[in-house]
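Researcher: Can you fold this with acetyl coenzyme *A in place?
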Amino acid sequence: VIRSVVRGVGAYLPARTLTNADLALMVDTSDEWIVQRTGIRERHVAADTELTSDLALAAARAALANAGMEPGEIDLIILATSTPDNTFPATAVSVQAGLGITHGAAFDLQAVCSGFVFALATADNFIKSGAYKRVLVIGAETFSRILDWSDRTTCVLFGDGAGALVLEASESEGEQRGVLTTHLRSDGRHKNKLYVDGGVSSTKTVGYLRMEGREVFRHAVGMIADVIDDAFKATGENAGSIDWFVPHQANRRIIDASAVKLGIAPEKVVITVDKHGNTSAASIPLALAAAHEDGRIKTGDLVLIEAMGGGFTWGSALIRW
Ligand code: ACO
């Protein structure tokens, strides 16, 4: 049996931060409203010259350093993003070139906020099939570029950033570590509840993020609970046996409600939404990096990740770290 074992994790956040107070100078909002409804206090925003590929490359380098690996050891790069540098080529090939890798393969994957879980599942299956040995799984976004900065109902929610994991195939007998299970779902009937108005095939130019916030909220907790249930059923694990719950960081209220519904103790929940806002596909690897760096997530820990986002798409994974 081949297992996909986490060898390294890394993150990158743009230097510039935008606080709720800063936003209150731009639109009719307040720190109190944003904190109470979302738990967000500040978010990072990329400089005009900083592209998604720059964020992704910095996170990839950090993950490789953490793994003690050279870029040349990587044979596959999967980059989850909804905010690519260009329509094509894939942002992943810019990261590949930036790392000086000329072998193997690199491609983008698009599942909005669930992108990282979809990318992790894809990487895990490529590793298990024996096709690739060392995979960089990256979530990187510059949502600041698709926000309507005059719309208070959306511009306060998102931030920019990138995070990455290095996965390596392990065929060691009795290997306990690695990705234990992944579960992906989507339901396109909800495609108009969260979308960007415009794109190459419809309007040629990219528009702004649009969202029916209440509708997203209404569906989120049930979908998250369902797909986590799938992960528990597949492995025999449960809310009590996991060490860390690292959810997609969209909104504090969605995270808290999900943890309550699943019976996950609050001290096991990793929260970064207060400092990062919703960084879409980057939020989970950013949160994994934060909890790894401050010593919470340790080798051998059982880590549950979960995301839900535009499409709708949703998914879960259990990782023995
Ligand atoms: N500041 C002040 N007031 C605001 C703001 C703001 N930034 N935004 C909206 N309001 C106002 C509205 O205009 C409305 O005013 P009205 O009553 O006079 O019409 C009032 O606040 C209530 O608005 P609602 O949209 O009903 O507020 P709600 O409590 O639903 O909170 C929110 C909005 C935070 C977007 C919530 O619906 C939510 O969290 N939804 C989930 C969406 C989400 O997290 N999306 C992220 C992307 S999807 C994903 O990653 C899963």
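Model: Folded with acetyl coenzyme *A in place. Residues 3-170 form a domain with the Peroxisomal Thiolase; Chain A, domain 1 fold (CATH 3.40.47.10).
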